[in-house]
Amino acid sequence: MSPKSPRLSDALEGKEVVICAGSGGVGKTTTSAAIATGLAARGMKVCVLTIDPAKRLADSLGLAELGNDARRVEPKLFEQQGIEMKGELWAMMLDPKATFDELIARQAPDEESRDRVLENPIYQQISGALAGSQEYMAMEKLFELHTEGGYDVLVLDTPPSRNALDFLEAPGRLTQFIEGKSLKVFMKPTGFAAKVAGRGATVALSVMKRILGFDLIADLAEFFNAFSGMVDGFQARAKRVNKLLASPTTCFLVVCGPQGEPIDEAVYFHRKLVEAKLPFGGVNVNKVHYPAEKLRGEAEDLPAVLAEKLGDEDLARRVAANFSDYQALAERDARNIEHLAREMRATGVIRVPYLDEDVHDLAGLAQINRYLFATGEERVAMAAGRA
Amino acid sequence: MVIVTGKGGVGKTTVSVALGMRAAAEGKRTIVCEVAAQENASRMFEHTTVGFHEVELEENLWAISIDPDESMREYVLLQLKVRAMRDMLFRSRIFNYLAAATPGLKELVTIGKIWELAQLDRKVKSGRKYDLVIVDAPATGHGVGFLQTPRTFANIARVGPIHSQAQTLDNFITDHDNTGVAIVALPEEMPVNESAALEHDLVEEVGVAVDRVYLNGLYPERFSKDEAESLSALAAGEDGAPKAAARAALSEFGRARSQRAQLARLRRRAQAPVKTLPFLFEPDLGPEAARRLSKRLT
Fold first, then answer.
1. Which of A187, A273, B63, B211 ranks highest by number of CB atoms within 10 Å?
2. Among A50, A64, A59, which Cα is nearest to A20's?
3. Where are the beta strands (DSSP E) in chain B?
4. pTM recorded for the entire structure
5. Is B30 helix (H, G, I), strand (E, B) or coil?
6. What is the CA radius of gyration of chain B?
7. Which of A338, A341, A371 shows the shortest CA–CA distance to A280?
8. What is the C-alpha separation between A113 and A317, in angstroms, rounded?
9. Bridge partners of A49?
10. Number of C-alpha atoms within 13 angstroms, CB side, residue A385?
11. What's the pLDDT tens digit per position in A304-349?
């Protein structure tokens, strides 16, 4: 990859899993869909997965709705946007509860254990409602699809978490959560392990009973007990999920916006990726104000020049003031992106301009796709046609 | 109490701080609570670091960043009353296991801390009394799950101390007289759709009262249609600053116009009254930006 003109297609070469990560509101869904579109256009069979409860992906792909099964996006729709679809684009929206149920059904040694978990009231509450289960299930579905091998590339739009790290920690938490062994042991006061663990543990348990109430502890123990036959299966699975995430055929793309706060979060997230030894593929900044670089200095007598051309001094003043506002935003963006590139030691930051039109349909997606897959120089040239 | 929620990146923190400033200026003792340890509010007040303690930002205005682990320690201490017993519990492997593995426990203790802050009879010794608690809540998707946590726990623990405490928290969140939700939206197609869906879920599923929808970042209407037309010739002309300036003006005109269309859509779809907040052409949004927004709030 030449440092001056990073090409997304180079970063994605040979990748089987592309994970778009970043804080909320930075255009992750659009970026995921545009990347998937670009790879599919190049001849690959691609599936883009989202867990977004807000149906953003369906909106941007022109699909009325998405379900827990992948659906193919009509190639004709892309032809209308001037994109020739050599491969196939599929999309799905994860249903965390259904995915969790499927996982239990697969891991349960027999029907009785399966039903015991599925009918457990604690399971029913946590599998659908609680924060965190979305992340568990995103990883799970990704792993399942990758193992089945029906697609060349999987693109994952990570859940709209405020903290992008939740997602990285999901497989570990899944194991921890299923692995209720220690609790079960303590629930049997006559158990050998309880004796070995000694008095401290017994006191801890009695204190916990005081805080939580005995019934809740008993319910939790029953819940973990119901999972008992599946613990080994879950552990093995979580290990394989982690292996997939760290694989050289996986790549994490950090998506962010040009403002200070998303940039800081992207830097932090990148550091965590490096610490966790996960493969960082690049960074994509959305909604960037491109500066009119060559114009500095020339803009000083702008109100006068504009007044002459427009024949309206008041309008000229307002146009000049607006221009300087825009330039200030462009300069801020450039500063922030420079900081980002330095912190990440990234060879190239992909900058997608703030388009005049709101990006929410296939036409917008096609436009983003063209920016993403262009070289740095091409992007500047494309953006020069805009403010 | 006011819970500020919305999709990520819409400016929830700025709106939360602005609401706090507004209330503080009216003489209400106000605290802005951040969850998920993001420290966004301290970013707004550059030199102050807000941690898990109540920090005074200015007259009548405090902030706290609610850390779930600290909330848990505080909660357990309030239950056990004896510090040594608490520390013993926190050293125990089984307790740590349970605390880390139980999904939603972090959210539950976070809401518990918010509840504690809102009490006039504070549980924490020497805790101040606040007239208003503003919560900078997690983003959409998680936002609904976050607010539903107490009910989920109340259902899981059918009886016992956790049940009654979770029930108290749920009643607190769904108390229409004392707790209101403000949704922050952006004037774009998908954020408008999501805000309408979020309002529906919050009202129908969580049962909270949504009092306001703030449409944040609305571009000013700087140019009229006629002016835009006279600028388009210049924008198509030769290169240079005038052309770039004309393009910037046309871009502003286009965004301002499409945003007005989104505002109209939001007004049609939202049940609660929609208020607008202007886009601020400022490189970095600091306390002064929040203060200016606070004057525009109603």
1. B63
2. A50
3. 2-6, 30-34, 55-58, 61-65, 132-136, 180-185, 210-218, 274-278
4. 0.83
5. strand
6. 22
7. A341
8. 75
9. A92, A156
10. 7
11. 888 888 889 999 999 999 999 998 899 999 999 999 999 988 767 8
CA distance A58 to chain B (A): 11
Both tokens of residue B87?
A: 């520390």
From chain B residues 72-131, the ones with a CB under 8 A of any chain A CB are 76, 79-80, 85, 88-89, 92-95, 97-98, 100-104, 107
Q: B236 CB near a chain A CB, below 8 Å?
A: no
Mutate: best of B252, B263, B266, B285, partner A, most A CBs <10 A = B252
Residue type present at position A331? E
**Rounded CA gap, B267 and B275, in Å?**
9
d(CA B188, CA B255): 10
What H or E segment, with its residue span, contains residue A43?
none
Nearest CA among B159, B252, B105 for reference residue A387 = B252
Instruction: Please state the ipTM of this predicted complex.
Output: 0.82
List pLDDT tens digits, range B109-164. 999 999 999 998 888 877 889 999 999 987 755 567 788 889 988 887 777 788 88
Q: Are strands A88-93 and B30-34 parallel, antiparallel or unpaired?
A: unpaired
pLDDT tens-place string over residues B206-250 = 999 999 999 999 999 999 999 999 999 888 877 788 888 998 999
Question: How would you class B22 by CB atoms within 10 Å of its CB: exposed for 0-12, middle for 13-18, buried for 19 or more?
Answer: buried
